[in-house]
Hints:
Low-confidence stretches: none
Structural class: alpha+beta
Amino acid sequence: MGLGAAGLFGALAWAAPPVDARTSEQRRLDNRLELWGTFARKTRTNLIARYSSVRTSSLLREDLVGGGTLAFVNPATLVLRDDSATGSTTRIERQGIRIATNDPSLPERSLPPRAEAPAMRWLADHLVACFAPGDGQALLADARAEVPRGRAPRLSLMPPRESPARAIIRSLTLTFDPVGGAVVEIEIAESDGGTFTLALSDHRQNEAPEALARVLD
């Protein structure tokens, strides 16, 4: 093959159409969902995990740090129970959201109905979807998805641009265990610059009812 042929094939190589960026992004998204599903599909009945939490805000003098236990009950119940007696227990269910103080002498926190709180509804639905077994479509429902670059496998979910939830919630970012696929961190970024981060550990799937009752009751 002469120089002319080499030049021809070289020109053809450079003239090849570029890889579609959307196709590349879709592959990365599919890989994240497959990694997530590796763990989530094994949650037949429930999941229990420990969490440590950090709340940051320009309105706080210092970060608020806490810890507790998370419980997911298939198909759509999520409970976050703080360890501290001065903390609270958040229960997310299809019929609504409740936040009760761990001190029974204090009143339960009043929340608006789901229909009247789009940001609360969006966040609650996607937090439940983080742990519910399925094909990942519930995670992506009513959301824009991005795959952040970096060594840790992550997935960021954002309310649609026209959604009123954007007034409060900027993004929900999940970090996965790179081998097993468990969600090991959840970061909620707020539109005012504040963040709430849950670091999860000691994941236990399909626990006995008595172990689950210690978190739920």
